[in-house]
Amino acid sequence: MSGLKVVIEADGGARGNPGPAGYGAVVRDAGSGEVLAERSESIGVATNNVAEYRGLIAGLEAAAEVGAAEVNVRMDSKLVVEQMSGRWQIKNPGLRPLAAQAAGLVRRFDSVTFGWIPRERNRHADALANAAMDLAAGRPVEPVPAQAPAPAEEPPREALAAEATARARAHEVAAQASSARTSWEPRPAMTATRLVLVRHGETELTAQRRYSGRGDVPLSERGLAQARATAGRVASLAPSVAAVVSSPLSRCTATAGVLARALGDVPVIPEADLVECDFGQWEGRTFAEVRDRWSGELDAWLASPTVAPPDGESFAQVTTRVRRAVAALMATYPGETVVVVSHVSPLKLILRDALAAGDAFLHRLYLEPAGLSIVDTWPDGGVAVRTVNDTAHLADL
C-alpha cells in the first residue's frame, strides 16, 4: 500500500460534558471511499473535547496500521481542527497531552491536512461514537450502517502547505501541547507525578539473548539478586511511593514484589497494558536465529513501528495500550510517585514519548535488566526525564 491516500472522519461526544463519553473514527480510501478501518470506544466520563481528540488519535493510529502515507482528516470539531492546524493555542491543560500524542502521530505520515466539516457530513463517525456510548450504558445497539463518504471539498488554503510547513506545524502543536513552558526548570506551585520505571530482573532467556515476549518466564537467581539491589536503590530515591504497578507476567510481578516489600509493603497493582510486546513466531528464539530465518521480516520490523513480527504485535499496537496505561496512572496518582515494573518495549515507548523522540530511538536505546529510569510530569504538561537506564546499584552483582 505504498503511497496510500486516506480520509479520516473522526468524532467524539459526551452525554453531560463531562459525562459518559465515547469516540468513533473511520478510515477511507481517498479515491474509492471504501472503508478501510473503523474504531470506536467508550472512554468513561470525559468532556466532548477529550472525546473528539481521542477519536482523532484512534483514526490516526488506524491510518498508520493500514499503511497510509497521505492523510486528510475531516472533523466537525472546529477546536480540534484549529488547534491541530497550529492556528489556535491549546490552553486547556487536559487537552495538551492528547494534542501532543496526535501531533506525534501526524509526523509519521508523509503529509496530513485538517479540514472542518459540518456534523451532518460526519454521520458515520458520530454513529460509531454513539454506539460505543450505548453499549457501555447497556442499551440496545443497532449495527452502524455503511455510509457514503462525505463529498470531497477543495481543502482550505492552509491545508495546501508544503510538507515542510506541515511538519513544522506538527512540531509547533507538539510543543504547545507538551507544556505552556517548554522548560525543565522547577515549577514551584506544582507537584509532578513521578514514574520510576524499572525493567524486570534477568531471566534465562535474557541471558541467552532470546526474544522474550508473552511467555511467562521466571526470574533467574541472578534476576532475583538484581531485584533486591534495585529495591534498595528505589527506596533511597523514592521513600514515599503510592503504588507499584506491574506487568502481570511473573518476571515483573516477582521484581515488583521485592520492590514493594522494601518500600513498606505498598500495594502491587497488575496492569495488563504494561505486558511485553507479542513477538509471535520469534518468541524464545535467539536474535541470530531470527536474523537467519526471517531476515526480510526483521528488516521491515526494524524500519517501521507499524510492522509486526509474524503472528505478533507491532510497536504501534503496543504504543496504544502503553499510552493508555500512562494516562491512567497520571489520572489516578496526580502528584505522587509510582514505581512501574515492565519490560523493554513498553518502557522504551514511555521514554520515547517523554523525550519526544523519533521511532529510531526504540532500536538505539538499551535498557539493562533491573535498570532504572525516572520521568516527572507536571499538571501543565511539562516533562523532565531525570534518569535513563541507571544501573549503578548492580555494580557488585
Question: Describe it for me?
Answer:
The structure is a single chain. The protein has helices at 48-65, 78-84, 96-106, 123-136, 163-178, 204-207, 221-237, 250-262, 287-293, 295-303, 315-332, 344-354, and strands at 4-14, 19-29, 35-46, 68-75, 111-116, 193-199, 243-246, 268-270, 337-342, 372-377, 383-390. The radius of gyration is 22 Å and the shape is globular. Strand 1 (4-14) and strand 2 form a beta hairpin. With 397 residues, the protein is an alpha/beta fold. The termini are far apart. It folds into two domains: 4-178, Nucleotidyltransferase, domain 5 (2-Layer Sandwich); 193-394, Rossmann fold, CATH 3.40.50. Strands 8-7-9-6-10-11 form a six-stranded mixed beta sheet. Residues 152-168 have low confidence and may be disordered. It has twelve helices and eleven strands.
- Strand order, largest beta sheet: 8-7-9-6-10-11
What distance lies between the first and last C-alpha atoms, to the nearest angstrom? 50 Å
Q: What would the CATH topology of the largest domain be?
A: Rossmann fold
The level of helicity is 25-40%
What is the CATH homology-level superfamily of the largest domain?
A: Phosphoglycerate mutase-like
How many strands appear in the DSSP assignment?
A: 11
CATH level 1 name of the largest domain: Alpha Beta
* CATH architecture classification name of the largest domain: 3-Layer(aba) Sandwich
